Amino acid sequence: MPVGSRSVAVCGADGIIGRQLLAALAADTSLKRVTCIDPIPPDGAPASVRHRAVDLRSVGGVRALSDLIVEEDFDTLIYLGYLSARLQNQEDQLTETRVLIEALSRRPVPRLVYTSSTAVYGVLPGDPSHFEEDAPLALSAESDWVKDKVACDQLINRFALDVDTQVTVLRLAVLIGPNVQNFMTEYLGRPAVPIVQDYDPPIQLLHETDAVKAYQTAIKRSGMGVYNVVGDGALPLSVALRVGRRRTTVLPEIGRTPITQLLWDKDIVETAPVMRDLFHYVWVADGGKAGDELGFQPQYSSKESIEEFYRGSLS
Asked: Does pTM top 0.85 for this prediction?
């Protein structure tokens, strides 16, 4: 059921999603105050958004955030994590998550909205085609990107069991849109896209505007626990590439190790290592719980999201 929010703080708002979220929150007349917690103010932040300089990766990050919570008396803290442009490697989010947990253990806030990814399910062979929130995490992940998402997810869910803070974890599908730049947009945007022979993995995506909508929804509802936030449906990679009129470079698989891994490791085909997991495991989650409990309904399906991406990249 809906809950009121007087003051919302956003940590990690220097990326595309963060900047859009700050603008949306600043326009929400039901909120008394919106604060951005970042080392430097994000470009283009609305004038009404207060900026408080805190670097969670600094030596004094725990104390600085704890003191700020006391000073500002936030109702809700949104942690955007890997969506922040300042996080240059996977370990940064793990470091920040530990600092966040320690600070909130000292000075709790009523509500925490934490950003995770549906890729935490994505490297478990033989699992169902649509993961629900209680599915086991991918403890044997191959790529560092997924490993760190799993480690952060474990930390935040253990924290949620031991505190009075209402913790909402949003596991987002891979983001896409006309303004998004990530490993998926880099991969799908190539004129000639490397694929693995006989592999046509399903692609589930989340449009950037739906991601912003999910955070707005989460802070207005009393949801507690983990929620998959995804675009409706999924489409085979081959269909996604046809939508974008992309040529493909087919690379054979040799034994258990695809030649793509050998090529990518040697930088012959420069692609993020996390993309290797895409060809072996299912990254498709069930978004029904977010709809039932949070009232979140995506505007864009996965197919519509990729159509929008290609329209933007070709314009």
From this structure: yes
